Amino acid sequence: MFKRFSADNNRPSVKKVSELIDTRSHKQKKYISLMLVPSYSSGKTRSLRVPHALFHGVLISLLVITAVVLGLNLRASHFRNMAQGFETALVETEGNFYNFRAYAEQVQDDLIETTAQIYAELNQVEGRAQDALDEKANVHRTELEIILDQIEDIERAIREMDEERQAIVSGLSARADIIPPIVGIMSQLEASEISLRQASLLHAPAEATVGVGLLSLGIAPMAYVSPTHESVQDHLNILMQEMEIQRLLMDNLEAYRSLMCDYLRNFPTLWPVSGNISSGFGWRPNPFGGGGSEFHDGVDIPAPGGTNIRAAGGGVVVFAGWRNGYGNVIIIDHGNGLETLYAHNTTNIAREGDTISRGDIIATVGRTGRATGTHLHFEVLVSGNPVNPRPFMNEFYS
Predict the structure, then answer these.
(1) CATH for the stretch 282-392
(2) Comparing C-alpha atoms, which of 97, 144, 145 is closest to residue 125?
(3) What pTM does this model have?
(4) Mean per-residue pLDDT for 236-255?
């Protein structure tokens, strides 16, 4: 049974487009009209007018947000590559040092063994020369010349050892530009090297003093015009003295390198987040209004909420939790009485007791605690006292 509709049945009223749009109004051109047609028959057709400026503003905002997200992703990738390169360079430096240490010890053992052999050969040469000086004069001279050749080889090895040690010192000096404590240690190292050389020269025989000084400068002593047993003996004394100097210098370098090790690994040289400092260290007007001023113990770096915060240097997390005014806080102990503090975090990723490397993500930017906006509050503390962090911030993570 079908139900027949009469002309009197209620039908949804549908307006014509010409009735919805007033073509006579010049204001119509400033809007984009959207017509909403309901899916059910009894609904009314509605129209929505969106201003051209608003429509284009929303479209441009979407494009800008997309570009910013892509840029942040590219920069984060660059940061990760830089951290990996820095870690690899540090590992290679340590490996080169220990390899050279092993090489130096091997060369020293070889030098001692060669010197003993030379002394033995000299004694043999002297005995034969005394028994038949006239018959074996030419043989004596030839053997002495062979020994002098061996002495030249020893001198060359000593110079190579000194050059390798200087290369290590130069590599450590390169980090002194961004790690201030290394400057003082390098100065102590240089002073101790000068002291060691002077002490050795003071105790050297008069004949050997000139030779030791020349070898220390990388210059071979003058050649012997007429080699004799006595001149060769003096030359060997020079080499033994220089060998002792090189041993003392190597031990001295190892001692000072161990002092630098913690600074090289853990000294906080990195910006925790990228950006510009909005509030520096020291006295400033009260940021919450009301007049007056307050002492700012660190620096503020504005950044979007959720931005990764990276450790400025390696160390151990000694605090991860809430502090009044600071909100969520991370504190890292870098050794040598040096700590860094990261405050107002949205979340703390690192936990108390964690061992952290330079560049590790430890938290995200927020505005917890007493903050006027999303930013990182960053402090550097020396023996528990806040100091200006800006001189420490010398590298960007990439």
Answers:
(1) 2.70.70.10
(2) 144
(3) 0.48
(4) 78
